[in-house]
Amino acid sequence: MNLPVYRAIALDIAKRIVNQEFLEGTKISGRTLLASQYKVSPETIRKAIYILKENNVISVSQGKEVLVLSTQQAAHLLEHHQEIDAAYSLKQELEQLIKEKESIDKRFHKVTNEIMHYSDRLKNITPYNPMEIQIAPHSTAIGKSLRELNLRQSTGTLIIAIRRGTQVLIAPDPDDILQKEDRLVVIGTLDKLSAVATFMNENHCM
User: Fold this and answer.
1) Which residues belong to any copy of the HTH gntR-type domain (predicted)?
2) How far is the C-alpha of 32 from the C-alpha of 181, rounded, in Å?
3) Are residues 83 and 100 in the same domain?
4) What pLDDT, in 10s, does the model give residues 6-63?
5) 3-state DSSP call for residue 40?
6) What is the pLDDT of residue 1?
7) 88 to each of 93, 97, 143, how far by Cα in Å?
Protein backbone atom coordinates (compact mmCIF):
# COMPACT_ATOMS: atom_id res chain seq x y z
CA MET A 1 0.00 0.00 0.00
CA ASN A 2 1.47 3.35 -1.09
CA LEU A 3 1.25 5.81 1.79
CA PRO A 4 1.16 9.60 1.48
CA VAL A 5 4.58 11.00 2.42
CA TYR A 6 3.26 12.82 5.47
CA ARG A 7 1.69 9.62 6.85
CA ALA A 8 4.89 7.67 6.27
CA ILE A 9 6.78 10.37 8.20
CA ALA A 10 4.25 10.24 11.06
CA LEU A 11 4.73 6.47 11.32
CA ASP A 12 8.50 6.85 11.20
CA ILE A 13 8.42 9.39 14.04
CA ALA A 14 6.12 7.05 16.02
CA LYS A 15 8.61 4.24 15.48
CA ARG A 16 11.44 6.47 16.71
CA ILE A 17 9.39 7.22 19.84
CA VAL A 18 8.75 3.50 20.43
CA ASN A 19 12.48 2.86 19.99
CA GLN A 20 13.07 5.58 22.62
CA GLU A 21 14.98 7.80 20.28
CA PHE A 22 12.46 10.40 21.42
CA LEU A 23 11.58 9.94 25.10
CA GLU A 24 8.28 10.76 26.78
CA GLY A 25 8.26 14.31 28.09
CA THR A 26 11.00 15.50 25.75
CA LYS A 27 10.75 17.91 22.87
CA ILE A 28 11.12 16.86 19.27
CA SER A 29 13.07 19.03 16.87
CA GLY A 30 11.08 21.92 15.41
CA ARG A 31 9.16 21.54 12.18
CA THR A 32 11.81 23.29 10.12
CA LEU A 33 14.50 20.93 11.36
CA LEU A 34 12.25 17.89 10.84
CA ALA A 35 11.52 19.13 7.32
CA SER A 36 15.24 19.30 6.72
CA GLN A 37 15.79 15.81 8.17
CA TYR A 38 13.09 14.22 6.03
CA LYS A 39 13.80 16.48 3.05
CA VAL A 40 10.19 17.57 2.66
CA SER A 41 8.29 20.83 2.96
CA PRO A 42 7.21 22.28 6.33
CA GLU A 43 3.61 21.71 5.21
CA THR A 44 4.26 17.97 4.88
CA ILE A 45 5.75 17.93 8.38
CA ARG A 46 2.74 19.86 9.66
CA LYS A 47 0.42 17.14 8.34
CA ALA A 48 2.58 14.42 9.91
CA ILE A 49 2.58 16.23 13.25
CA TYR A 50 -1.21 16.58 13.03
CA ILE A 51 -1.63 12.80 12.72
CA LEU A 52 0.57 12.21 15.77
CA LYS A 53 -1.31 14.86 17.72
CA GLU A 54 -4.72 13.40 16.81
CA ASN A 55 -3.55 10.01 18.07
CA ASN A 56 -2.32 11.51 21.38
CA VAL A 57 1.28 10.60 20.62
CA ILE A 58 2.49 14.19 20.93
CA SER A 59 1.22 17.61 21.93
CA VAL A 60 1.88 20.89 20.17
CA SER A 61 2.05 24.12 22.16
CA GLN A 62 0.99 27.51 20.89
CA GLY A 63 4.64 28.21 20.41
CA LYS A 64 4.63 25.19 18.10
CA GLU A 65 6.89 23.15 20.37
CA VAL A 66 6.36 19.42 19.85
CA LEU A 67 6.34 17.34 23.05
CA VAL A 68 6.30 13.54 23.21
CA LEU A 69 3.29 12.43 25.27
CA SER A 70 3.05 8.66 25.06
CA THR A 71 5.21 5.78 23.86
CA GLN A 72 2.20 3.50 24.26
CA GLN A 73 0.06 5.62 21.96
CA ALA A 74 2.88 5.62 19.43
CA ALA A 75 2.90 1.81 19.58
CA HIS A 76 -0.89 1.73 19.15
CA LEU A 77 -0.60 3.95 16.07
CA LEU A 78 1.94 1.55 14.54
CA GLU A 79 -0.21 -1.50 15.37
CA HIS A 80 -3.26 0.17 13.85
CA HIS A 81 -1.32 0.87 10.68
CA GLN A 82 -0.16 -2.76 10.49
CA GLU A 83 -3.79 -3.93 10.80
CA ILE A 84 -4.88 -1.57 8.05
CA ASP A 85 -1.96 -2.68 5.88
CA ALA A 86 -2.83 -6.36 6.46
CA ALA A 87 -6.50 -5.75 5.64
CA TYR A 88 -5.51 -3.86 2.48
CA SER A 89 -3.21 -6.70 1.41
CA LEU A 90 -6.01 -9.24 1.93
CA LYS A 91 -8.39 -7.03 -0.05
CA GLN A 92 -5.88 -6.84 -2.90
CA GLU A 93 -5.41 -10.61 -2.80
CA LEU A 94 -9.18 -11.17 -2.81
CA GLU A 95 -9.62 -8.86 -5.80
CA GLN A 96 -6.89 -10.78 -7.65
CA LEU A 97 -8.54 -14.12 -6.83
CA ILE A 98 -11.90 -12.80 -8.06
CA LYS A 99 -10.28 -11.72 -11.34
CA GLU A 100 -8.66 -15.15 -11.70
CA LYS A 101 -11.95 -16.89 -10.93
CA GLU A 102 -13.79 -14.77 -13.50
CA SER A 103 -11.12 -15.63 -16.05
CA ILE A 104 -11.41 -19.35 -15.25
CA ASP A 105 -15.23 -19.18 -15.41
CA LYS A 106 -15.09 -17.51 -18.83
CA ARG A 107 -12.66 -20.12 -20.08
CA PHE A 108 -14.78 -22.93 -18.65
CA HIS A 109 -17.91 -21.60 -20.34
CA LYS A 110 -16.02 -21.14 -23.62
CA VAL A 111 -14.71 -24.71 -23.56
CA THR A 112 -18.13 -26.07 -22.58
CA ASN A 113 -19.80 -24.21 -25.43
CA GLU A 114 -17.19 -25.51 -27.84
CA ILE A 115 -17.77 -29.07 -26.64
CA MET A 116 -21.51 -28.67 -27.16
CA HIS A 117 -21.00 -27.02 -30.55
CA TYR A 118 -18.74 -29.78 -31.81
CA SER A 119 -20.45 -32.65 -29.98
CA ASP A 120 -21.33 -34.45 -33.23
CA ARG A 121 -17.68 -34.40 -34.30
CA LEU A 122 -16.50 -35.70 -30.94
CA LYS A 123 -18.59 -38.85 -30.85
CA ASN A 124 -15.64 -41.06 -31.70
CA ILE A 125 -13.17 -39.36 -29.38
CA THR A 126 -12.32 -41.17 -26.17
CA PRO A 127 -12.26 -41.26 -23.22
CA TYR A 128 -14.89 -38.47 -22.91
CA ASN A 129 -17.85 -38.05 -25.23
CA PRO A 130 -20.58 -35.46 -24.87
CA MET A 131 -24.11 -36.78 -25.04
CA GLU A 132 -27.55 -35.24 -24.73
CA ILE A 133 -30.10 -37.16 -22.70
CA GLN A 134 -33.79 -36.31 -22.92
CA ILE A 135 -35.52 -36.79 -19.59
CA ALA A 136 -38.59 -38.97 -20.12
CA PRO A 137 -41.97 -37.55 -19.03
CA HIS A 138 -42.37 -40.39 -16.51
CA SER A 139 -38.91 -39.99 -14.94
CA THR A 140 -38.97 -39.42 -11.19
CA ALA A 141 -35.84 -37.28 -11.66
CA ILE A 142 -38.21 -34.45 -12.61
CA GLY A 143 -38.58 -32.07 -9.68
CA LYS A 144 -35.33 -33.19 -8.07
CA SER A 145 -32.07 -31.28 -7.82
CA LEU A 146 -28.80 -32.44 -9.33
CA ARG A 147 -27.48 -32.70 -5.78
CA GLU A 148 -30.27 -35.12 -4.83
CA LEU A 149 -29.66 -37.27 -7.89
CA ASN A 150 -25.91 -37.38 -7.18
CA LEU A 151 -25.32 -38.42 -10.78
CA ARG A 152 -21.55 -38.15 -10.68
CA GLN A 153 -21.25 -40.60 -7.79
CA SER A 154 -23.94 -42.92 -9.18
CA THR A 155 -22.77 -43.10 -12.79
CA GLY A 156 -19.29 -41.56 -12.95
CA THR A 157 -20.37 -38.88 -15.42
CA LEU A 158 -20.54 -35.09 -15.32
CA ILE A 159 -23.43 -32.82 -16.33
CA ILE A 160 -21.90 -29.82 -18.09
CA ALA A 161 -25.13 -28.15 -19.21
CA ILE A 162 -28.92 -28.37 -19.25
CA ARG A 163 -30.90 -27.49 -22.38
CA ARG A 164 -34.28 -26.09 -21.36
CA GLY A 165 -36.23 -25.02 -24.40
CA THR A 166 -34.16 -22.31 -26.06
CA GLN A 167 -32.18 -21.71 -22.86
CA VAL A 168 -28.87 -23.40 -22.10
CA LEU A 169 -27.70 -23.55 -18.48
CA ILE A 170 -23.92 -23.84 -18.59
CA ALA A 171 -22.23 -25.50 -15.60
CA PRO A 172 -25.53 -25.91 -13.72
CA ASP A 173 -25.66 -25.41 -9.98
CA PRO A 174 -26.05 -28.57 -7.82
CA ASP A 175 -29.31 -27.12 -6.50
CA ASP A 176 -30.84 -26.62 -9.96
CA ILE A 177 -34.15 -28.51 -10.21
CA LEU A 178 -34.76 -30.70 -13.25
CA GLN A 179 -37.90 -29.94 -15.23
CA LYS A 180 -40.02 -31.84 -17.71
CA GLU A 181 -38.47 -31.98 -21.19
CA ASP A 182 -35.02 -30.89 -19.95
CA ARG A 183 -32.11 -32.27 -21.94
CA LEU A 184 -28.91 -33.02 -20.04
CA VAL A 185 -25.55 -32.52 -21.73
CA VAL A 186 -23.31 -35.13 -20.11
CA ILE A 187 -19.69 -36.18 -20.61
CA GLY A 188 -18.16 -39.50 -19.72
CA THR A 189 -17.02 -42.77 -21.23
CA LEU A 190 -19.41 -44.54 -23.59
CA ASP A 191 -20.37 -47.25 -21.11
CA LYS A 192 -21.05 -44.64 -18.43
CA LEU A 193 -23.22 -42.56 -20.76
CA SER A 194 -25.48 -45.51 -21.45
CA ALA A 195 -25.88 -45.99 -17.71
CA VAL A 196 -26.92 -42.34 -17.34
CA ALA A 197 -29.76 -42.68 -19.84
CA THR A 198 -31.05 -45.72 -17.98
CA PHE A 199 -30.56 -44.11 -14.59
CA MET A 200 -32.39 -40.91 -15.51
CA ASN A 201 -35.38 -42.46 -17.26
CA GLU A 202 -36.32 -45.43 -15.12
CA ASN A 203 -39.54 -45.04 -13.13
CA HIS A 204 -37.69 -45.89 -9.95
CA CYS A 205 -35.05 -43.18 -10.41
CA MET A 206 -33.94 -42.15 -6.92
Assistant:
1) 3-71
2) 81
3) yes
4) 999 999 999 999 999 999 988 887 777 788 888 999 899 999 999 999 999 999 887 6
5) coil
6) 61
7) 9, 14, 45
CATH classification at residue 182: 3.30.70.1450
Domain holding 153, by residue range, is: 120-201
Average pLDDT across the chain, whole number:
83
CB atoms within 10 A of CB 164: 16
Considering the domain architecture, whether residues 37 and 66 belong to the same structural domain is answered as: yes
Query: Same domain for 146 and 190?
Result: yes
Instruction: DSSP for 126-154, please give it.
Output: SS-EEEEEEPPTT-TTTT-BHHHHTHHHH
Given a contact cutoff of 8 angstroms between Cβ atoms, the answer to whether 9 and 44 are in contact is yes
Residue 130 sits in the same domain as residue 65: no
Give the three-class secondary structure for 57. Answer: coil
- Degrees (nearest 5) of the Cα angle 96, 100, 104? 170
Final residue belonging to a domain, choices 72, 91, 117: 117
If pLDDT is split at 50, 70 and 90, which confidence band does 121 have? low
Residues 6 or more apart in contact with residue 38 via CB below 8 angstroms: 9, 12, 44, 45
* pTM over cut 0.70: no
**CA-CA-CA-CA torsion sign (201, 184, 130, 151):** negative
Question: pLDDT class for 117, splitting at 50, 70, 90?
Answer: low
